C-alpha cells in the first residue's frame, strides 16, 4: 500500500460522494425556479407551496454539494501536487473562472433568495433564484471543461516539464468538453427528474391512503379526489426527464465517437475488445452481442476498425516506454453497461409516465407539455385528467436510486477508463501524486473525510425523508381577499400576498 | 507593474477579503452560544450571517483557485506542506456549512444541538488554523504558529462580536458589546505578539529599516484593533466594525508583504508563476467580472442592512 493508492481512493470517494449532491442541485434548482416562475405567472398558491416544499429539499441538498466541493478544490494541491504543478497553468484557469464567475453568483443570489422573500420585490426575488441556478450550471461547465482537458488536452504546449496554456478558447471549447457538458448537465436533470418523480409518487400514494383510510376504493383509482396537487409537478418532472434523456443519449453518442478518436483505450476497455476489430460488435449485456454495432456507434460506419486493448498496449509501449496502459477492465466494462441500462430505464420510466398521464382528449401534438394557463374550462369539458396509477407511483419511488447509480457509473467509466493517465498521453497518475505527503497523512485524511461523509450522508437522507414525509405546509384555510386563483393574467405582483413565506432558514 | 506582481497582489487581495468577511462569520459562529439565551435569540445571532456567509466563503474558493491558476507551485506546495491542518480546516468548513444550512430545517432540538456544535467547531477550527498556518509559514516555529492561531481566533471573535453588535438590537446587542470587551483582553496582546512577528520574519527582508512599510501596516493593524475596542466601548458600532475590518485588512497586507517575493521557503513568485499568456487572459476576465461580483455582493449586504430583532415565535 502506497500513498498513491490511498490518494486515489480518497479522490474517488470524495468525488463520487460530491457528485451525488451536485447533479441534484443543478437539476432541482432549475425545477424550483420553474415552480416559482409558475407561481409568479399564474398566482396559484399551490405553486408557492410546491416551490417552498421542493425549495427546502433543494437547500438541504445544496449545503452538501457546497461543503464537499471545497474539498475537491483543495485536494489537487494536497494529494496531487506534482499534477497541480504540471497542469496549473492550464487546468487552474477554469477553476479560478468557476469560482469568480459561477460560485459568487450562485452563493450570493441563493442567500438573497433564502432570506429575501419579504425583503425583495417579487419579481426581483424570482430573478435571484434564476441567477443562482445559472451559477450552478455555469460552474458545471467550467469544471467539466477542466476535466475534459485531462482526457483530451488541447491549447497548450509543454515547456520545462510543465504544461503552458497557449489558447484559452481552445481549452474552453474542447470538443470533449462540448460533448460532456450537455451529457453531464442533462444527466443531472434526469437525476433531479427521477428524484421529483419519487417524491411525487410517494405523495400520491400517501394522499390516496389518507383520503380513504378504510381502503373502500381500490388504491389504483384514488378516492375521487379533486385533481391531485402532485399531478402538475409529476408531469413537469416527466417532461424534464424525457427531454433531458434525449440530450443524454445524443451527447453520449457524441462522446462515444470522440472516444474513438481521442481515447481509444477507454473505448476498447468499455467493450472489452482485445484486438483491433473491423465491424466490432457491441454487447448491451454480457453474453449478448449485436454485430457491427460498436463500430457503427463509434464511427457511423458498421465496418470501421475499432482499436483493441492489446494492440493499443503494444503501440503505447513503443510510444511512451514500458508500462501497463490498460485501465481496470472489469470496472470500465461493467460501469459502461450500468450507466446505459440504469440511465435508459429512468428515461423509459418518464416516457411511460407521460403516456399514462396523457390528456383524455388529445388536443394536437401538445401531449407532453405542462398544462397551459387558463385552460381550466376546456379541461373540464374534456373530462378530468387521468389519475396517476398507483403502481406507477410505486415504480417511481422504487426507481429513485437508478439515475444516481447511472451517474456514478458514468464517472467511473470516464475516470477509471482514463487510467493510467491523469493527463492523457502527458502525465501518469503515478507521477502526479504529492511526493512529500506520507501514507499516514493520506490515511488520516481519508479516514476523516470518509467518516464525516458517512455520517452526513445518513443525516441528509434522514432529513430529506422526514421533510418529504411531512409534506408541504398546509394550504391556508382562509380564502384570499382578492380573487387570485383564476390565473393567466401574468401579473403576479399584487396577487397571492397571503402566503408569504418569510424564512426558509 | 508586471503580471506576476499584479497576480500576487490579486491573491493577497482575495485572501484578505476572505479574512475580513469570513472573519466575522467565524466569530459569529463561535459566539452564537455565548450571545444568545434562547432559540429566538440564537436565530437572531445566526441570522446576521445567514444570507452572506456562503458568498463570503467563495472568497476563499476564489483565492485558492486563483493561486492554482496563477502560481501552481505555490498552491501545490502550501496545501501539501500543511496537509493535516488543511484537512482539519476542510472538516471544519464542512461541519460549519452543513450546520448553518440545516439547523433551520431539522425538527428536533437535539438535532439542532448537533448543528450548533458543528457551527461552533467548524468556525473555531479554520479561525485558529489559518492564523497558525500562515504564522508557521512565515516563522517556521511552533510558538509562532500558536501565537498566530491565537491571534486569528481572537480577532475573529472580536470582529464577530462587533458585527453582531452592529447588526442586532435588544439584549443580544448589549451582550455582544460586552463580549467584545472581554475578547479584547486576549485579542490585543495576541495582536501585539503576532503582528510584530510579521515584519521581522520576512523571508527576504529583515530588520526595521529594511521593511518600513511592513512595520507600518503591522503597527496600524494594532492601532485599529485598539481603536475598535475603544469605539465599541463608546457604542460606535459601525466605526468599531470598520476598525476591526481595517485591522484585519492591514494584517493581510503585512502578511503578504512579508511573503513577497518568496511565498514558500525556496520558492520565488517568479518560479511559481504561470505563463504570461494565462496571467494575461485571467487579468482581462478578472477585470471585467470583478466589478459585477463586488457590486452584487455589496447589494446583498445592502438588502440585509437592517438590524435584526429576536422573533417571538
Short overview:
The complex is a heterodimer of chains A (505) and B (313). Chain A is mainly α and 505 residues long.
Folded structure, characterized:
The complex is a heterodimer of chains A (505) and B (313). Chain A is mainly α and 505 residues long. Chain A has helices at residues 3-42, 45-79, 81-115, 122-151, 168-172, 175-211, 231-262, 264-271, 293-299, 309-320, 329-356, 376-381, 390-398, 401-416, 439-470; strands spanning 156-159, 162-165, 277-278, 305-306, 421-423, 427-428. In chain A, 66% of the residues lie in helices and 3% in strands. Mean pLDDT of chain A is 84; it is low at 362-366, 375-381 and 478-505. In chain A, helix 1 (3-42) packs parallel to helix 15 (439-470), helix 2 (45-79) packs antiparallel against helix 15 and helix 7 (231-262) crosses helix 8. Chain A has a domain at 21-173 and 438-476 and 499-505. Chain B is an all-alpha fold. Chain B has a single domain, classed as Formate dehydrogenase/DMSO reductase fold (Up-down Bundle), CATH 1.20.1630. Chain B contains twelve helices and no strands. Chain B is globular. Chains A and B meet through helix 2, helix 3, strand 2 and helix 15 of A and helix 3, helix 4, helix 5 and helix 12 of B.
